[in-house]
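If you are new to this repository, start here. Below is one unmodified record pulled from the training split, so you can see the exact layout before writing a loader.
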Amino acid sequence: MSPPQWTCTPKVFPTSGLELLDQSIELEEETLSDYQPENYYPVNQGEVFNGRYQTIAKIGYGVTSTVWLAKDLIASTYVALKVYVTGQNRACERELHIYEHMNLVETNHPGRNFVRKLIDHFYIQGPHGPHICFVHEPLGTSTDILVKMFPGHKMSLDEMKPGIRQLLVALDFLHSECHIIHTDIQLKNLLLPGPETSVLTRFEEAEVADPSPRKMLKDRTIYKSLGFFPKGGLPILADFGEARLGDEEHSDDIMPNAYRAPEVMLRSNWGYKVDIWNVAMVAWDIVSPRTLISGKNPDGVFDDRVHMAELVALLGPPPPEFREQRHLSSVYWDESGNWKELVPIPDITFERLAEKVEGKDKEGFLRWIRMALQWNPEDRATALELLYDEWLMEGL
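And here is the target side for that same chain:
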């Protein structure tokens, strides 16, 4: 019998006539290098979590979780249910603290609509320990997948502008209203809006009629993820797993290797302006087939010395006050500010790296990039200064 508060009836999914995949082939999360099956909760299609969320189909996976499209049987809406692996409670509780902090902020700032929200969270007990689950609105594919759909795996400057404007409005909301530093702005954390409810209803009906392929093992079933075709719209900033509160001191290691700001590489204090550095890196990745920073040594291994040498080539040597504030500067520069020749300074410029960028006013774009990529964090523009720059506003 349905609990009295349910407003819709759970679906019954077929248990026979399913498309079963070869058990010997690694599938989805099993292909991850440090996959340990007992860390993952063995979700089943049609399972009801926390007395209200019925799983419909798997829509994503990663080292920390599997993600499912689910139906909220009380609100009669579709949600994305993220079921974390065991041992993630501490990291998840930090993320939860960020979401709760954000939810307490009372503001009409438009950026609130451009940041992923947490609808609910709860704990479940799995065969090998507790798991925390997050409930979000369902969103579409990530921007890195979208960019790959464009010719040459890149957009033109004009195609990139609307998404970057929206990202900057979201960042101004986080920085000025919530005092939150995201620290991990990259294409895979910018998600497109989710499909309309009517599309999700058809998706659910299709799963009942012909469930997605799966591999059945003795203690669990590994499902093949289904994707949503992206609908139009601008990306929403998601994934607050590495976010920090801006009114505390931070010096820990953050950001993907090639995206790290110089103060992070030098293990010194950092703040809001690491996000500004990241916005420039993301904008570059959208319009260029190659990343701004390679950072790879001749053996193909990421190397901080190579990364720092590339920054010197692009930005010129750091100002004395930047070096003096950061004790690890002495690894790279002598007391007079001379580069210690740990690796050669490459012969690169913004202009040369931007040769394949398409669109008008490339000079305006590079000037805008330089507003964000400054050695001194305080010299970098704010989110609003970048947003209202004449180059980015042109075409509105």
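Two things worth knowing about this chain: The radius of gyration is 23 Å. The mean pLDDT is 95.
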